[in-house]
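Entry for adenine complex. Fields follow.
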Amino acid sequence: MKIDVLTLFPNMYDNFLTESIIKRAIDRNLVEINIHNIRDYTVYSNNQVDDYPFGGGGGMVLMCDPIFRAVEALNNDDAFVIMMTPSGKVYKQSIAYDLSKHKHIIILCGHYEGFDERIKSIVDLELSIGDYVLTGGELPSMVVMDSVIRLTQDVISKESLESESFDNNLLDYPNYTKPYEYRGMKVPDVLLSGHHENIKKYRHSEQIRLTKENRPDLLGGSHE
Ligand code: ADE
């Protein structure tokens, strides 16, 4: 999988790309991530990429031309183009699964007042990571990349992906490790029983209990 990110703040990605599972996936050539500065694609004087909104109002708006030029330069293979914006569709695990099937994704990160509306004409999906406004699309793009890359083949073991939160609209079951007893809190006996069927039943009932407690909204809908 190849991911191209368009941003005004490329340095924000330095740590993201050089730590942990993402770094390992890059080193193993399982994913290629390229961070591009939108300013490299402008032909306006003074490297201009944004301007005041028509009609007034605060903040600056990213202009069409630098973004169109950048996407046209990078998209030679029918890439899937995503725009990070608080007014997009709210991101969730089923979207991460869908995105993990693409060979090439281009992610547009806005800042300030966002994008000229006409940029949407070259975008396949507008995504928000939640109902709050951040200073830009950079952190949201890292959230999307992280969740997609871990689902990409061979990045992490199949076993680790087998039961996770949001599969079948349920949260994950609780886990325990050594010691058996810590400050008076014991590991549930069923987990030590070696009885696989009972362990499975216990974990499923815990998933339902936790989902009812923390995310009753998930139990209302079917899996998309
Ligand atoms: N840019 C600013 N806030 C955002 C959000 N919540 N999701 C995606 N992009 C954003």
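NOTE: The chain has a mean pLDDT of 95.
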